[in-house]
Design brief:
By secondary structure, this protein is mostly helical. The chain has a domain at about 1-25. Helices cover about 80% and strands about 0% of the residues. The chain has helices at about 1-30, 35-40, 40-50, 65-85, 95-110, 115-140, 145-180, 185-190, 200-205, 215-250, 260-285, 300-320, 325-350, 355-359. Helix 3 (about 40-50) runs antiparallel to helix 4 (about 65-85), helix 4 crosses helix 6 (about 115-140) and helix 5 (about 95-110) runs antiparallel to helix 6 (about 115-140). The longest helix is centred in the middle third of the chain and has 39 residues, at about 145-180.
């Protein structure tokens, strides 16, 4: 028994050493960045689900559940391959066992259901969620993989918050006015036989609460309630990373720390700011004469389209030349997370019944 305990302790130490070697390899540059990212194929698959799943919820679009389950099962197979080939240990066995026990109980008690087809269909969905939990708990074993997954959550949350705000404040009022002016649009866009509002369409158009791509305000609210604390906590970590990168003053001999790399990064920063402001405001406003600009006024547009992108480009150049590209990256992450939390908090307010009316 003592020998077995020593072997167990040794194997756990070897696993820790192997994990440390993987992390050090990823951060030291022994492998290229893209090669390391492509090696995290499970994390990339989960990122695909996290970014695009909120755009098509399973309640409104049941057919998309098939694609969701197919991707989950493919990822589960990829995670199971090392388990069978190399004897890789399965983590989170107790939660997985409890989940499996629930599925077995649901299967055997489902025969007594008065709606057996609905019960078994939902059981299949629950089975896919079991495999999803297995993939998340066993497929992410490196810091890079965890970073890809968390980064995709940030991107999805930011996209959902921005779209929800635009949808509640601009898109829905615009659609209402267009239908009032031309009722035949109901037939074209909602596939109805007559230009008359059904109860469901009428409820959607008269909704004062933000619902974004979820189509249900409570679903959007639950999603934002999950994201806001996660991002708020991540802001503290990113701030510490930025402070360490700024105070250390280290400038590794990399492309992005060179003069040309700093110039390219500053150009990308300026173009990014210009593209977002131009795309949101000008394309929506000037391609449709009957619509309104999100940002009105000549001075406001000159400031946002001209001054802000140039200031962002100059600021990026100065940060890289005086500190490092790592300091710029962590600073951008901090600003993006802060803006995301602000946008999500406002979008969450718009999902509330009182907030939707006041918003």
């Amino acid at each position: 028994m003592a020998k077995k305990g020593r072997n167990t302790k040794k194997s756990s130490q070897e696993i820790s050493v192997d994990a440390a070697e993987v992390v050090s390899r990823e951060t030291s540059g022994e492998h290229s960045v893209w090669r390391s990212v492509l090696h995290e194929y499970v994390a990339l698959g989960l990122a695909l689900l996290l970014v695009f799943r909120p755009m098509r919820d399973g309640v409104t679009y049941p057919s998309f559940n098939l694609y969701l389950m197919a991707i989950i099962w493919v990822l589960a197979i990829l995670v199971l391959i090392p388990v069978f080939r190399r004897g890789q240990a399965i983590r989170c066995r107790i939660p997985l066992g409890l989940f499996a026990g629930y599925l077995l109980a649901a299967y055997f008690t489902g025969f007594a259901s008065i709606q057996s087809d609905v019960s078994h269909r939902e059981l299949v969905h629950q089975l896919s969620y079991f495999f999803l939990f297995f993939v998340v708990s066993n497929g992410i074993r490196t810091r890079l993989g965890l970073g890809i997954v968390l980064g995709s959550v940030v991107v999805a949350g930011f996209m959902e918050a921005i779209y929800s705000i635009l949808h509640a404040n601009y898109i829905l009022p615009y659609v209402r006015q267009q239908i009032i002016d031309n009722p035949r649009l109901i037939v074209s866009y909602f596939q109805t036989e007559t230009p008359e509002l059904t109860a469901e369409i009428k409820n959607r158009l008269e909704m004062q609460r933000a619902f974004g791509s979820f189509l249900f305000p409570n679903a959007l609210g639950g999603y934002l309630v999950l994201c806001i604390p996660l991002f708020a906590g991540h802001i503290l970590s990113v701030y510490r990373w930025f402070r360490d990168a700024w105070e250390s003053g280290e400038r590794p001999d990399t492309f992005w720390n060179s003069s040309f790399g700093a110039l390219l990064a500053s150009m990308l920063m300026g173009c990014t700011f210009f593209t977002y402001v131009y795309g949101i405001n000008f394309i929506m406003g000037f391609t449709r004469p009957d619509s309104t600009l999100l940002i009105e006024g000549v001075l406001a547009n000159v400031f946002l389209v001209g001054v802000v992108p140039v200031a962002a480009a100059v600021g990026a150049w100065m940060v890289i030349r005086r500190r490092s590209a790592l300091a710029l990256g962590t600073l951008c992450s901090f600003i993006l997370l802060a803006l995301t939390v602000i946008a999500e908090t406002y979008a969450l307010w718009l999902t509330l019944s009182r907030g939707g009316i006041l918003g």
